[in-house]
From TrEMBL:
Claim: Hydrolase is one of the keywords in the record: yes
Necessary cofactors: Mg(2+)
Domain Nudix hydrolase: 10-95
Descriptive protein name: NUDIX hydrolase
One Pfam family it belongs to: NUDIX
Species in which this protein is naturally found: Kibdelosporangium philippinense
GO molecular function, one term: hydrolase activity
Xref: InterPro entries: NUDIX_hydrolase-like_dom_sf, NUDIX_hydrolase_dom
Keywords recorded for this protein, A-Z: Hydrolase
Domain of life of the source: Bacteria
Length: 95
């Protein structure tokens, strides 16, 4: 019998892989107090009020870029250890 390990998901995020009309990857520069600025894919945390990861992605893109997304589907999932369990990031792109 195989033993299964259960790990709590501490934070979920929805991120978009966006390519502009010139074929360049779209990133945003994020600044936070007491941290060096860094570049990341647009998106952010999935909130309890979001009905789905996709809904969170739509909300985040509207907030950060004033953009709308259509026909996005998850292309990969990234997870890493965090203080509260595992941080999971759902990356989506348009087919």
């Amino acid at each position: 019998m195989t033993e299964q390990l259960t790990v709590a998901v501490g934070r979920r995020a929805a991120r978009a892989i966006l390519i502009d009309d010139d074929g360049r990857l779209v990133l945003i520069k994020r600044t936070k107090p007491a941290q060096a600025p860094y570049w990341t894919a647009p998106g952010g945390g999935v909130e309890e009020t979001d009905p789905s990861v996709e809904a969170a992605l739509h909300r985040e893109l509207a907030e950060e870029l004033g953009a709308e997304a259509a026909d996005a589907s998850q292309v990969f999932l990234f997870s890493s250890p965090s203080d509260t369990g595992v941080a999971v990031q759902h990356f989506s792109s348009r087919g």
